[in-house]
Amino acid sequence: MKKNTFTVITLAGLIIAVVAILITWPANRPDIVTGTLLTQPKSLPAFDFVNHHGESFTQIDFLGQWSLMFTGFTTCPDICPATMPILNELDEKLRTNGTRLKMILLSVDPERDTPEVLASYVEFFNRSMIGVTGDLSAIEKFCDEIGMSFIHIPATEGRYTVEHTGALVLVDPRGRITAYFKPPFDTGRLAKDLQSVAGRGKLSMLNSAMISP
Question: If you classify domain 31-201 with CATH, what class do you get?
Answer without folding.
Answer: alpha beta
